[in-house]
Design brief:
Elements (H helix, E strand, L loop, with lengths): L5 H15 L8 H14 L2 H5 L7 H11 L2 H10 L6 H7 L3 H13 L6 E8 L10 H5 L5 E4 L3 H11 L15 E14 L5 E4 L8 H5 L2 E4 L6 E7 L3 E9 L9 E6 L6 H12 L20 E2 L4 E2 L19 E2 L2 E8 L7 H12 L5 E12 L3 E13 L19 E6 L16 E7 L11
Protein name: Serpin domain-containing protein
Organism: Micromonospora lupini str. Lupac 08
């Protein structure tokens, strides 16, 4: 079945890239959207519209006043009785049931060229062993279990991105009640590799042409190119490279450029629009005939004409060649903006899990590399639900100074793997009275 996800995901991508800005970056809107959809799968409307203990908006606002975290204010807004599941549905671009269905369809039937994984972890001791309806609502492929330590989270990120992402985007701490994570990764080879050309082919106005030595040129066959007129960005140039297919499944990487003055948000939005037909290899709507354009140079293309032998019906053949640079990016993104849906997702998930959550954290780490022979990319997205910080009080700290003679006793511990206490447990093995301390050796300083 098709998921009909393109429209909601394109809208979500526009909001996500808007929060990132126009710096060099890579992101996975899908990776973030999937976490919202998993939260939707567990949500019950009554639990969200009537917040349980720990998700009361007044409590969250009090926490914000006491400690100042932005996340507490956002969670308070997302859990208010006037919002319910509405903000989560708005962020998803569809109703919660449909979003949950799409997530299950994608995750339980993974793509051969796109590795995917999701997980929901809870702090041990927080009712993780009780049977609950939210478990059945999750995709079968979603891992559910006890919250790992930081090393475990990092290992999960590495395992499910084939080592492309080495560390989890969030740092676990004692206040974390639950964690939700997604991982997406791909490593593909082009069906037809690029050729190599001098970087000056990028154009006389390109700064990159002066800074680089070599660039990529599309081969004569196997890649697609077009000049397309769009309402939002004017004329754009489009290049599509395809991966070697596996069992009928493939991957198309679309590159879209507009005139230099066009805002990045508009170019990204147009790229998402054009990607809707890329899987079928269809010619994009608005494609311009090269015979309707003047010969010569523009900021985006050079158009020339020559006499050739051609089998075109009217004797007028159109050819497209593309010159692109290699590129790579590694980015981290804060996902706490209300428009990205994670405040509402945290509230929904906390209600379903019956957890005393008052704050949240959400981040994504992503990487990509585009080269002559292929493309690789990965993203890990994480969300933590956190408990409130303790109220403000007074703390005293004692610095203990062993500055005169003191005793030392070394005591054995002997707890076996089966939980049985062995005979050495609690036995003092060594003892000392220290009166002549040594200076720290130079080798240890």
């Amino acid at each position: 079945m098709t998921t009909d996800l393109h429209g909601p995901l394109a809208a979500y991508a526009e909001r996500l890239h808007a929060t990132i800005g126009d710096r060099h970056h890579v992101a996975s809107p899908l990776g973030a959207w999937l976490l919202l959809a998993l939260s939707a799968a567990t949500a019950d409307a009554d639990q969200v519209t009537r917040p349980k203990t720990g998700t009361d908006p007044t409590e969250a606002t009090d926490l914000a006043a006491a400690t100042g975290p932005k996340t507490a204010n956002d969670l308070a807004a997302a859990t208010g009785p006037e919002t319910g599941t509405g903000r989560l549905a708005d962020a998803l671009g569809t109703d919660l049931a449909r979003a949950a269905e799409v997530a299950r369809t994608l995750l339980d039937a993974p793509h051969p060229l796109v590795a995917s994984a999701t997980a929901l972890w809870l702090r041990p001791g927080r009712r993780t062993d009780e049977p609950a309806g939210w478990r059945a609502a999750l995709p079968t492929a979603t891992e559910v279990g006890a919250l790992p330590d930081q090393a475990g989270l990092d290992a999960w990120a590495r395992e499910h991105t084939d080592g492309l992402i080495e560390t989890f985007p969030l740092k676990v701490h004692p206040d974390v009640v639950f964690a939700l994570a997604s991982a997406l990764a791909t490593r593909i080879s082009w069906a037809q590799p690029f050729e190599v050309t001098d970087a000056r082919a990028l154009g006389p106005a390109s700064v990159w042409a002066r800074d680089l030595r070599r660039a990529l040129r599309s081969p004569d066959h196997g890649h697609q190119g077009a000049i397309v007129t769009t309402d939002r960005a004017g004329d754009v140039i489009v290049h599509a490279a395809r991966a070697q297919a596996t069992d009928g499944a493939g991957l198309v990487v679309l590159s879209v450029a507009a005139a230099p003055h066009v805002p990045p948000a508009d170019v990204l939005a147009v790229a998402y629009d054009l990607s809707a037909g890329a899987a079928e290899g269809a010619q994009p709507a608005g494609r311009r005939s090269l015979f309707d354009l003047p010969l010569g140079d523009t900021a985006l293309w050079t158009l020339r004409e020559e006499r050739v032998r051609t089998r075109a019906r009217d004797g007028r053949e159109e050819r497209h060649s593309a010159v692109l640079p290699c590129w790579s990016a590694r980015s981290e993104h804060d996902l706490t903006a209300e428009s990205l849906g994670f405040p509402a997702a945290t509230a929904a998930l906390a209600g379903a899990l019956d957890q005393p959550v008052q704050g949240f954290e959400a981040r994504q780490v992503a990487m990509a590399r585009y080269g002559r022979y292929g493309f690789e990319a990965a993203a890990v997205t994480g969300m933590f639900g956190t408990v409130s910080l303790p109220p403000e009080g007074v703390a005293r700290t004692a610095e203990l100074r062993f500055g005169h003679p003191y005793a030392v006793v070394a005591v054995a511990t002997d707890t076996r793997a089966d939980g049985v206490t062995g005979p050495w447990h609690g036995v003092p093995v060594f003892s000392a009275w220290v009166t002549e301390p040594d200076d720290l050796p130079d080798a240890d300083a």
